[in-house]
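A favour, since you know our structure tokens better than I do. Would you make up a two-line entry for one protein for me to read? Write everything out right here, beneath this request.
=====
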Amino acid sequence: QVCAQLCRRPCYCPWVPPRCPRGSPLVLDGCGCCKICARRLGEPCDFLHVCDQSQGLVCDYSSAPAGTGATCNFEDDAEGCEVNGRVYRDGEVFQPSCKIQCQCLDGGFNCIPLCQEDVRLPTPDCPHPRRVEIPGKCCPEWICEAQDQHLLQDARAVSPLLRYPCQEWGTEWSACSATCGLGFATRVSNQNRYCQLETQRRLCMLRPCPALPAAFPAVS
């Protein structure tokens, strides 16, 4: 049995083109007549309803069971990934936002931050550092807030506990300072009753140190 899809001439297209979902451009159908929404990854397709070739998609009939239609897939089984409705090819580098950069790898994607995640501890000239969003800039920056020390001390004298929720933040504990015996590890954390960044230390011991060999007795 031979099946064919005939293209009618002349073309009869709707006066208003269809409104496509996000990530699906307007393209000509398989007959080259009317504008339609390109099918995206995993969507059904046929001769008339074509896939989005700008994303490297083709109508794949190989994985279609008997009696069912084909679906849009990458050409030559190339791996890809879809992020926010857009398909990226394997190895392609993209930025979902100005703060991160990602790369499509083997059907998934790896991302790295573009903004520095540095830590600023309180200092005498900047006792209350705070990270804020600056209009017109992508990455947040540190600013120094001027607070009345007397009011802060009075508040602490009344109650040592904070009256507002404190979002916990801290770094991982560092490696032990000694390879054997007692040492110490450090981290930066705000998990204290004043919710201020501070350097914290704790004792650690990876393993006991080996015993020193006994000294030989002196021979006269």
User: Anything to note?
Assistant: The helical segments are 149-158.
